[in-house]
Queue: 3 jobs
Job 1
Amino acid sequence: MGARFVPRLIAAGHTVSIFDTRLEAMTNLVLEGAIQSESAKQVASEADAVFVSLPNPAIVEKVALDESTGVIHALPKGSAFVDMSTSPPSLARRISEKCNEIGVFGIDAPVSNGGIFVTIGGSKSIVDKLWPAFEAMCEKVIYMGPSGQGQIAKLCRQYVSYTAFFTLIEALLIGHKSEVDTQKLANFIGESTGNSGPGQSLKRLAERDFGSPESARAKLDIVAKDLGMAVELAELIDSPHGTGTVTSDTLKAAQEKGWGEWEYWISACILEEISGKKIEFPSL
């Protein structure tokens, strides 16, 4: 995400300091004008805002709150810690509360669709100040409300996206086993339900293209994490989540096969195994 956002911030006139535990991830960004720092705390020490995008909530919590290395402790008074990762709403609120205790602000701003959308939770006045930076990074900037609500919106979006994908797989398998032309069926479902028809994930599933641990962008482990958090939220507030639970179980079954580092649509193979058929699109 840094490779996407940093050049946009620089192009918009912002001074950007960066840090990544993988030094090679910073090389090209430095050539584009970013300032390489020695640590995350160094990035934060002179920043109006520090934006982080991290793999999982445990890392977010450590980077933000650790007593010795936590970024929020290095921020100047009145500045902001912005989490663009997907994390539980409870963690977003905890970070915000801790930030308020030390005179800074915690903002949750998870991104969707590769960074096209950002949904934001936190102090409206601080979000307004950061709005130009958000607009530089993302095409669709949506303020959702108080702390945690940016994360709630993201989890709801993930819930719809991934349960819908597996619903489509099940429908195509029903058609395939009933000897319907799978490609025509996929096109019909896509057009008649307002979707775009077979997307890249479906096409790559049919081609048995699951990327690799090095190249995968929508990794099964990340998708399973996001949907799992959505289901946990639903359980916490006693809201229906049957389709999410079934989909989450499918993702977990795929993880148990050791597929966690591959593109998430590899988990559709679990449904294919149950069906005894493979999704095929001869001329897709």
Job 2
Amino acid sequence: MKNILSVIIKSPFVSGLLTSLTNIFYGLVVGIALYPGLVIIIKTWHYLPDHDSYTSIFLLALACGLSVIVFFSWGVILFGLLIRVISSGIKAGTYSVSSITMFRWLLYSGLYNIAGYLILQFIPMSFLLRHFFRLVGAKIGKNVQINTWFLNDAYLLEIGDNVVIGGKTDISCHTFERGKLYLDKIKIGKNSAIGQHCYISPGVIIGENSVIGQYSFVRKNNIIPPKTILSAIAGLPIRQAAKIERDNY
């Protein structure tokens, strides 16, 4: 089966066909997400008595604003459920580029990025953002504040109560190494805080009541003990930085 998939992937025709079909699928999903909001705008325009009056233009503007709110709300549900379905059953592990899992990962990652750029980046620190990641499959505790939409492969992510995640932080449950996709869980203990612009790699466990300083990079499979305070290491040679990490984890 892997050999067959490998041959298919290496075929320019088949790859182009799959890319085209995937883009059509993405376009249809975006269209479905836009549908309720467009209905509001068109219906409002249809029932306005005088299209040239300032009152009608103002009402149409309000309808456009309402359609954006509807697009965000409906889009969170639509994209979240689709990603949940496509990623269903995918577990932590290592997968080749010619595997069905790799294709599914690429498909839902595309949906996730579309959702991120169209919706998620505009709703930080909101219940809608938390709702999206719960729909995707993330385990999120109570009173969690998320100020970033870069939670990749969130169905492998567990966040405890009272956790704060800073803006533009990237929590990634995947890497691509030596031609293979690597997926692993990430767990963030309760009462912990992660500063802005951090990068948390797959397999990381952050203990309870810990603080990860802004711009920190936590390497793959590291276990951060409870009540740890980490600060980013700036401008050090890689061997010296690695030695400091080994001595302190």
Job 3
Amino acid sequence: MFDILVAGEINPDLILSGDVEPVFNQVEKLVDSAVLTIGSSSAIFACGAARLGLKVAFIGVCAEDVFGRFMLAEMSRRGVDVRSVIIVPGGSTGMGVILTRGADRAILTYPGLISALKGGDVSDSLLKQARHLHVASYFLQTGLQAGLPALFERAHALGLTTSLDTNYDPSEQWLGLDHLLAHTDIFFPNETETCSLAGTPDVPLAAQRLARKVKTLVVKLGGQGALAIKDGVRAQTAALAVKVVDTVGAGDSFDAGFMYGALHGWPLDRTLRLAAVCGGLSTRAAGGTTAQATLEEARAYGAG
């Protein structure tokens, strides 16, 4: 029995740090560091949840190429069960190149097989093995979009709860979510996504609007912390004070912390604090998974 089943995208990240703004006309620049690490919102979330002690299974699509083998090996090494991953012979696993400069970053993504997973690939027999279903990168997982409301409905019928982290919409259209949110138990947008989806730059107003559409809304506010609204109850927490090395995947580690508290029946404020601590601690090193916290580490920083 798994605590969480993640239906998501699979791609590594190449993270370049320093003076990373490229100059064309064949100008060569030196950067401070280059790290090949686990990428994709879904995979980083899965590793963070496993790091906290949750039992996590993953279904997605990748190829039997260098990037695919790297991802499956690294996820397995971090305790994520990848036996349900679909391997496409002759395909190409996706790839992200992240240019990071302080707390800011730019992301170049080669989709590869990111969009290949479909709702029908997630069988009832697999769902029955889990307590919760998590989906991330909605706008990149285009093959999953049409069937996702039905998948969430099937999950609910089998007794699972559901969560969604859309991540950014590259088209900036922010369309097609209302029906899905009606079947979403926990929604994890950041500040930009919240305002874009609600159609207002006013964060409190945007949160109020979105909270009417889901059972639990959790808004990540970066350096301002986070807020959550559940059944009309509101909680807010400050960000963890930590020296930031890399913010890649911090939101996914945040999600993992929140899901730990939610699956253990913790009160909303305690759950939100664990999430903020997990998100903050993940920024201590380059890459989304390198500095992810154990539960004991998170508690040492006042969570739980």
